[in-house]
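Sat 14:20. Reprocessing the chain from the morning session after the first attempt stalled halfway. Input below, unchanged.
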Amino acid sequence: MLEQIKALLEETQPRVYGTGDVPNKARLPYLLVYTLQPTQIRSLSREEGARRFRFGVTVVDLGAQYIEADADTVEQVLEGSRVLDGLSRIELVSRGPVRREPEVTSDGQEYTTLPLHFTVTIPKGAA
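Finished this time. Tokens:
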């Protein structure tokens, strides 16, 4: 499931990278896609259930010059996406603060992060 979401982001936004480390080269902004975690099971109808998962995406930028635009792009790509199944949907749950103090890597490179949190609802029986 996570691989499909990452593939969708990489297809639609060439500046997206699915790595967990902040690289030292200025090829950012890129995305850190965290592990999907089940949150709850909800009933969509009387006999059918749905699985819900929550996941986080962090937009990372060296210098913060693109971070707001990239966060908007990620929201537009994912929100309402049917990437997992024709009946599934991805919804934005929360967005972190737009402005944060820059963080610094071990070699002194400053970078800014903006967390986004989504839920994925997958109908019972879907892939």
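The CA atoms of residues 81 and 104 lie 34 Å apart.
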